[in-house]
Amino acid sequence: MDLNEWTDIYRRAWEEADTDLVLTLFTEDASYRSNPFEGPHRGHAGIRSYWDGVTGQQRDARVRMGRPYPDGDRVAVEWWTTMESQGEEVTLPGCLLLRFEPDGRCSDLREYWNVTGGRIEPFEGWGT
Question: Angle at CA 62, nearest 5°, toward 35 and 19?
Fold first, then answer.
């Protein structure tokens, strides 16, 4: 699986709140750190618990993925999401820092994000 396919599946899994689909992107023992101030969600069970919890509170998510920037087995990719979260319209842009295994699955994900009220479109040149 190439990086564009990986990011497209991630996007689709988020928009569809499809935990089973997102798990196909990760090794069984993967680390998924959604917040730099909290511990990681570990393995498929930890990722499932996290993913079900957050996507279960989201509606009408529109996810855009930027161009991936690879460096060996590491990749950085921006994302920009608009959605309803806990009854509020929000915009949530962020960046994934990923480590990939030879089989194309991710073994380590770290994300950094910001949130603001309302649905805001990305700025010109975003994601390139």
Answer: 60
